[in-house]
Amino acid sequence: MGTDGKSPGDPATPDGVRAGIAIHGTGNCPLVDASTAHDGPITGINWTHAGDTHTEEFRVRHPDAVDTAEGIPDPESVVDLGDERVYRYDRPRDGGCACRVIEELDCPIADARAEDGVLLLTLHLPELERLRDVVSALDGSAERVEVRYLVEGTARDDGASDRTLVDRGRLTDRQREVLRTAYRMGYFERPRDANARAVADALDISPSTFAEHLATAQRKLLKETLAEN
Fold first, then answer.
1. Pfam families per the record (predicted)?
2. Is the pTM of this model over 0.85?
3. pLDDT per residue over 174-215, tens digit each?
4. Are 142 and 134 in contact, with CB atoms under 8 Å apart?
5. 228: number of CA atoms within 13 Å, CB side?
6. Residue-range domain boundaries for the chain
């Protein structure tokens, strides 16, 4: 046992980060285009390359949006999972594709989804400098790249805290307004300075609608804060 409490050969704690980026104006991604007509995100996006062909797979909750989408070339329904359906389609490999640009930097993409015309990616990077490389490389492939959140690694042996920057971009404008108003009026205080009806009246919505917005917003934030990978 070493003087630092570690056994010889124990791996050092990595200094990496988990980053969420939003890519606006990719212009050449069929799924990003289709997401503007789809109610909810297009998820589970992954791909493979064979020769000059790029085969892409994705999941949707509402197949009608795929069937009517003009940008996806000949989407093929692969399997129906009940609440989602999996599709595939082929297209020529595109050197200007944002995901390929990132892969060429030797940065695997942990998660990819498209929502409301924006490509949302999750990356696990060994150091923060690599995130700067990714953003710079995308300069010619997108109108704008937005870093939505950064999550540092878990606590180190020196007692450093496990810090998380919450992705507020997951919330809609209305959800942010509901949270902000509830917080300002003291809804989260104990005892409360305002009850649900008072906050709902201030927002000019019904108490049930307030409760729905609040629950959805809290669920999104908790999912990001409590993520383990």
1. DmsR_N, HTH_10
2. no
3. 888 898 898 888 888 777 788 899 999 999 999 999 988 888
4. no
5. 0
6. 17-152, 168-226
Residues 6+ positions from 199 with CB-CB distance below 8 Å: 178, 181, 182, 185, 187, 210
- Does domain 168-226 match CATH 1.20.1070? no
Q: Mutual orientation of helices 207-225 and 196-203 as an angle, nearest 10°? A: 100
Integer Cα distance of 147 and 132 in angstroms: 10
- Residue for token pair 């999912």: 223
